[in-house]
Amino acid sequence: MQERLLHTIWQYSLYQPSALKTTDGDSITVIHPGRYNTDAGPDFLEAKIKVGDTTLAGHIEIHVHSSDWDKHGHETDEAYKNIILHIVYEHDADTGPANTPVLCIAPYVSLDTISKYEYLAYAKNDLPCANNLSDVKDIIKYSWLTRLLAERWEEKLGTWQELLDESAGDWSSLLYWRLAANFGFKVNAEAFLALAKSLPINVLAKHRENLLQVEALLFGQAGMLENEMEGVYPNALKTEYDYLRKKYKLKPIPAHSWKFMRLRPANFPTIRIAQFAALVHKSLHLFSVIIEKSNVKEIQPLFDVRAGHYWETHYNFGEATEKDSKKNLGKSSIQNIIINTVAPIKFLYAGQQSTEPQQEIALKLLDELPAEKNRIIDIWAGNNWAPENASQSQAQIQLYNNYCSKKRCLDCAIGLNIIKS
Asked: C-alpha angle 329/237/264, rounded to 5°?
C-alpha cells in the first residue's frame, strides 16, 4: 500500500461511505473530504465530518500505518495540532493526536480498486493503461489532452519568461534565441542557444544584408572557424570573422559543444547554422511579421530558406560530397518551428498584451498542423490513439513524459478513470 493511493481513495471517495466507523466504533459521515494539500502540512485541509453526533471541521492526516504519525515527527509539529481525523490503512499502534478519532479505511476499500492500481503501477509496457485505454470515454481522454497542452505551455513559457526578463523585455531577442534553439532540434538546442546568446542580435542586424558576414558571425561564434581553413569560401568566412570578432570583441563558444554523432548529414549543425544564417539574411522585423500572421499558410513561407551554395556539395567544412543537393529547410522542420517557437511566442506575447483572441489564434496554429512523428507518437498510435493534429501530439508527448513514463497514474485523468470505474 502507498500513501499516495490512500490520498486518492479519500479524495475521490473510493470507499463505502455509508459504513465508516472509527476504531472506537463511532459512525463517520463525510460532509466534505477537505482540500487536497500538495504542500507541507496535513494531507487534507478544511475538511468537515460528523463523528457520532458531533460535527468537526479542520484538517485530516493520512498514513499507511498509525505508527507513521510518530515516525514522521508530527507530534511536535504545530501544523498538525488541528487534526480532526487520522486515516490509516493499518491500525498498528495507539498513537496520534490526543482525542482524535482514527479511521482504519482498509475494510471499506474494494480489493478491485487496489488491484487496478497495482496493475497500472507495476505494468511493464510503455503505457501502463494500454490494455484499458479503449475503455476510457473519448470525452475524458480529449478533455485531458486539452489540459495537458496548457500544462506543457505553462512549463515552456515559464522558462521563456525568464529569457524575456534576461533580455530586458526585448521580444526580438527572445524570438532570436528561441529560433536558434529550435534550429538545434533537441540534440544541438543548447549549443544553438549558447551561440545566439554569444552574438547580440543587434550585431547580426547591422550585417543582415551581407549573407557572407552573417554566416561568418554565426560559424565563427560557433567555434568552427578557429583552425586553418581550406577552400575559398571557408577562408572568406574566416577573414570576415577575424575582423568582426575584433570589432565587436566577440568570444566564440567551444567547438566541442556541437554534436554530429548519430545525426543524418542533413541535420548536421553546420547545415542548420547555414540555414539559420539564410533566415537572418532574409528576415526583416521578423517578430512583428510573425505577430501579424494568423494562419500556417501565411507563416510557412517566412521559413522557406536554404543553406548557401557551398553547402550544396558539403555537409561540413572540407571534403566535398559527390551529390549536389540544395539544403532547404524541409516542410516538417518548418512545422516543428511553428509548433515549438512561433505559436508559443505568439501566445506569450498575446498574454502579456491581454489580447485573448490572439491567444486563441496561437493555439489554433497547432490545430492546423499535422501531428508530429516521433517515438512517443508511435507508441500512442500503436495503442490505437493516434493524434489528429499537432495540438493533440503535443499533449500526448506531455502525457507520456510527465505521467506514463513516471507511472503517475494517480495524477492522470485516464488512470483515475480506470481505477474509479
From this structure: 35
In whole angstroms, what is the distance from residue 19 CA to residue 15 CA?
Answer: 9
Complete DSSP assignment for 309-337: GGGGS-SSSSSPPS-----B--HHHHHHH
Residue 225: DSSP 8-state:
T
Domains of the chain: which residue ranges?
3-109, 167-368
H helices present in 249-388, as ranges: 269-282, 286-292, 296-299, 331-337, 343-352, 356-368, 375-382
| Separation in Å, CA 62 to CA 35, 41, 50, 94, 180 | 13, 11, 17, 15, 49
Angle of CA points 408, 413, 418, to nearest 5°: 90
Pairwise CA distance, residues 253 & 84, whole Å: 60
pTM for the structure as a whole: 0.85
Give how far Cα 193 sits from Cα of 163, 197, 296, Å: 11, 6, 25
pLDDT tens, residue by residue, 119-153: 998 888 889 999 999 999 999 999 999 999 999 99
Within 8 A by CB and 6+ apart from 350, the residues are 356, 357, 358, 359, 361, 362
In the three-class reduction of DSSP (H, G, I as helix; E, B as strand; rest coil), residue 119 is classed as: helix
Decide: 11 and 33 in contact? Cβ < 8 Å: yes
Indicate the Cα dihedral angle 171, 172, 177, 181, nearest 10°: 100
pLDDT for residue 215: 98
